[in-house]
Design goal:
Chains A, B: Belongs to the GHMP kinase family. Homoserine kinase subfamily. Two copies of one chain form a homodimer. Helices cover 37% and strands 27% of the residues of chain A. Chain A is α+β, with helices and mostly antiparallel strands. In chain A, the strands form two sheets. In chain A, strands 1, 2, 3, 4, 5, 6 and 12 form a seven-stranded mixed sheet that branches. Chain A has a four-stranded antiparallel sheet with strand order 9-10-7-11, sandwiched between helices. In chain A, a hairpin with an 8-residue loop joins strand 1 and strand 2 (22-38). The model of chain A has no long low-confidence stretch (mean pLDDT 96). At the A-B interface, strand 5, strand 6, strand 8, helix 6 and helix 7 of A face strand 5, strand 6, strand 8, helix 6 and helix 7 of B. Strand 8 of chain A pairs antiparallel with strand 8 (191-193) of chain B, so a sheet runs across the interface.
């Protein structure tokens, strides 16, 4: 294989109660990436569409991941990378993760499946370090593994795939404002009350049980976050109105995607996803803030090949 | 129905990572209780075997629960209760819960299924208040619902039954020392580090996923407790040695049962349960402390009728 084109999905991390431990991948939103072997032995970004991202191979996440994987493998070829971004970086939808995980997946293919999935994940996590300074696993794991993932442990790295109920859909609104990851981190307390922690892990248990048993009501009841949302929602204009609109119109639950500013709602059925999209639109339509709204199924298989 | 005899199981609460949110019921260890209608309109404890428990109907947990249920129902009969305790109170194995849940289950039968399971649970929780001053749900829910339960929420009360893998067994050692519930509560911090909380809810997620998918290794990896065990283990002589012995001999995991002093190990297979029992025995056999060791399956259905 000398060339491949892939779809690398957008991802929602945290999923309300599962702060820093859960994420899922979107089926209809993500980046298109093309990887072509070259004889120069160099990793080059040859095209970027849809976002203002660096071309330098030590700053561009996809290039940094690709370069390191090829080096570690002692590959005798380089790679030309094209990136077509379908949603904006800084959305809280795992934009850098889509690039990093996409590169890890694609380079592994060009190297004839040299790496295990867990090894690909570690390269993708290196990409997250390039993007934001730390090796976060949630978004890249969701992109690589697909569906819902649980980061059970970092040391050792232990990723658990959680089944996705067939009628689960998601609506996302991306208000196009900037939230600095640093601010989103710094606003969180270093300690939390035991009582709050207990209710959070009870909800994580409920969410995992609901996903396993396709119990949509249980999923909805468990999508509660007393730990992070009360702090971070301040960064997101109209957050309370968005959440109320989602719940009033029949969403299972709603919360902040990653560190925001995007807000997601999980729903039962594609029709409900459209209904919530309309409800989100009502909240934002008279706002001065640009926004995009997406509806999607859950990407059960994560990154997919699209070039055949 | 004028009379019934039941088996009300011992229960293990917390299950390492699931502090105040999870519990399971034992198949082979529990109390035998007999309930017989009387025409006096009074609730009486007529026999207690195996433990030194109060006979007064406002102090005895079973009697207190029975009395309140009969009163609330406006029943025209009283009940005579016999309790045969097969394990000692103060073990951390839900002794009061077995009595309270047993009474709630039995009186509901004598009242021709007047109450829902959730209502029975609330009466059993009242029994916990009589026993220890607060309406804890974990042990009573495990006894009433059977198998593994998740207390997803207290307000509103939301109990989630989690499936039990068929080869899951448990070994328990009860060192017969007294730990005051108050001490066990007071030693815990009121706040915990965010990082610790995250790893705890990741493990709860892993444990629930492991139980749902019969993934014994995942269950084992998830049986980790960074929140409570480091504090409470100080109350339990040889705790570290017991835990090491369990893990060295092939247990999936081990931890403190409830607030102790009992220590449980979850294992795959009945043979392994015996092996861990022997390993526990090795640790304690030269100790000056009296102890009992039990092996058991998981009680998939909770309290059972035994009088036919």
């Amino acid at each position: 294989m000398d060339q491949l084109q892939i779809f690398s999905p957008a991802t929602v991390a945290n999923v309300s109660c599962g702060y820093d431990a859960m994420a899922f991948a979107l089926e209809s939103l993500g980046d298109e990436m093309t990887f072509r072997k070259n004889d120069l032995g160099k990793t080059r970004i040859v095209k970027i569409e849809g976002a203002d991202l660096p071309f330098e191979s030590n700053k561009n996440v996809a290039a940094a991941v690709a370069k390191r994987m090829l080096q570690d493998a002692g590959a005798n070829f380089g790679v030309d990378i094209e990136i077509v971004k379908k949603y904006k970086p800084g959305s809280g939808l795992g934009s850098s993760a889509a690039s990093g995980a996409g590169a890890a997946f694609a380079i592994n293919q060009l190297l004839n499946n040299r790496y295990t999935k867990l090894e690909q994940l570690k390269y993708a996590m290196f990409g997250e370090e390039v993007a934001c300074g730390s090796q976060i696993a949630d978004n890249v794991a969701a992109a690589l593994y697909g569906g819902f993932v649980l980061i059970r442990s970092y040391e050792p790295l232990d990723i658990v795939s959680i089944p996705t109920p067939s009628q689960l859909f998601v609506t996302v609104i991306h208000p196009q404002i900037e939230i600095k990851t640093e601010d989103a981190r710094n606003i969180l307390p270093k300690e939390i009350p035991m009582k709050t922690a207990i209710s959070q892990w009870a909800n994580v248990g409920g969410l995992i049980a609901g996903l396993h048993s396709s119990d949509y009501d249980l999923i909805g009841r468990s999508l509660t976050d007393h730990v992070v949302e009360p702090y971070r929602k301040k960064f997101i204009p109209h957050f309370d109105a968005l959440k109320r609109a989602a719940l009033d119109h029949g969403a299972l639950g709603a919360g902040i995607s990653g560190s925001g500013p995007s807000v997601f709602a999980l729903v039962k059925g594609a029709e409900m996803a459209e209904k919530i999209a309309a409800a989100f639109n009502e909240v934002y339509k008279d706002s001065a803030i640009d926004y995009r709204i997406y509806t999607s199924g859950i990407a059960k298989t994560g990154i997919t090949l699209s070039n055949e």
